Hints:
Elements (H helix, E strand, L loop, with lengths): L11 H31 L5 H8 L1 H18 L9 H17 L10 H29 L5 H23 L8 E2 L3 E2 L4 H20 L4 H4 L7 H10 L4 H19 L3 H7 L5 H4 L1 H24 L1 H28 L4 H31 L7 H34 L1 H22 L11
Antiparallel strand pairs: 1-2
Helix pairs in contact: 1-2, 1-5, 1-6, 1-7, 2-16, 3-5, 3-16, 4-5, 4-7, 5-16, 6-13, 6-15, 10-16, 10-17, 13-14, 13-15, 14-15, 14-17, 16-17
Amino acid sequence: MKTKKDELPRGFYRITVLIGLGFFTMGLMDPLYDTYVPIFLEDFLSSRFLIGLIMTLDNLLALFLIPIVSNLSDNTHTRIGRRMPWILVTVPLSGIFFAILPYGALPSGSLVLLVLLIFLLNMAKQAARGPVVALMPDTIPGEFRSEANGVINTMGAIAAIVGTIILAPLMDLDVVLPLIGSVRRRLPFIIAGALVILATVLLFLFVREGDRAREKRETTKLLTSLRLVFGGEDRSAMLILLSLFFWFLGYQGVLPFMGIYSRQVLGVSEGLAGISPGAVAIGYMLLAIPSGIIAHRFGRRRVIRFSLGGIMVALVLMFVHEPITRAAGVGPTTAWIIFLALLFVFGMFWGSVITNSFPMLWQMATFSNMGIYTGLYYFFSQGAAITSPPISGAVIDLFTLGFGPTAGLRMIFLYSAIMMAVAFTVMRRVHGGEATA
C-alpha cells in the first residue's frame, strides 16, 4: 500500500517536464555533435587518433568549466534565482555557435576555423550544463529524484530522437534556401540551434526558482565539499564517482566513432549513420521513467548493476555482429536493422544507469552544495570523455594495422565492454545514495 511519503508531490510531472526543457537543449545538440563532428574532421585529417584527440577539446573544457560554474551558481542570488542567470546567457550562445558550426567544414572553411567553432560552442555549452542540471534537485525532494531524473532524461532522449531520426537525414538534403544558400550538411545544425533558443525562452517563461534560490546565503566553499566526498567515513560518493568514470570510459569510447562505423563497416549514408545514436536514444527514452520508479522500489544500486550487465551483453553482441551476419549471408539492410536493435537494447540499459546514478550522488548533498556535487559528477564523466576517445581511436588504428579497418573499428565494442565490467565491480562496494537515505 502506498504511504503519503511515497506519493509524488502535486504538479510533479508538470514542473519536471518544464525543468527538462534545459536538458532538452543538451539532448538535441549532443548526438548530432558526436556523430557529425568526427565526419567533418575526417575531411581534413586521416588519423583517427587525432580526430579522437580533437573530440576531447569539449570534454577538457567541461572538466573545469562545469564544476566552477556549478559552484558559482550555488553562490549566486538574484531576483530570478541562482541557476537562471547562467542559463539565460550560456544556452542561447550554445544554440548560435551550434547553428554555424558546419560552416567551418565547408570547402571554403578550414581545420583552424572548424576547431575554433568547436571551442566556442563548447565554452558556452559546458558552462550551461551544470546550472541546467542542478535546477532539478534544487526543486524536487530527494526521495523522488530518480523519478524526476527519469522524466528529464526522457526529455533529453526525445531531443536526441528529434536530432537523429528527424534532423540527421536532412544532412543529405541538397536544396538552396534564401540567406542560407545550399543546406547540405548544414540544415540539421541550423534547425537545432533555433530549437535550443526557443527552449530557453520557454524555460524562462514557465519555470520559477524557489525562495531559497533567491536568498543570500553563506558562501559554499568547494574544498569543504571535496573533503566531505573524499575524506568522510562513508566512501559511497567517491565510489559512485569512480564507477561512473569507468562506465563513461566505455560509453565515450564507442560514441565518437559510431557514425564512422555505420558508414564504413555497415555501408550506410551519412544521413542514415546519424540514426545510430537515435536508436540508443529511443531505448533510453522508453526505460528512463520506468527505471526511476523501479529503483525507488528495489534500490538504485541494484538497478544500476543489473543495467551494466545488460550493457556488457549488448556490446559483446555488437562486437560479433558483423562477422556473424556476413557469414550467415544476411543482407545489408537486415544487418543494419539488427545492429539498430542492439543499439536500442544498449540505450535501454544505459538510460537506466544514467537515470539512477545522478540521484545517488545528489542524495548525499545539501541545498547549499548541490551544484558542487553536480560539478563533481561531470568532472569525472568528462574526465572519462577526455581519456577515452584517444584510447579507443588508438585501439582502432592499432588493430587496423594488424587486421584491417573492419576489425579495427569493431574493437571499440570489446573495449567498451571491459570498461563496463570494471564499473560493475566498483558499484558492489557502494552502500549510500538510496531513496530512503
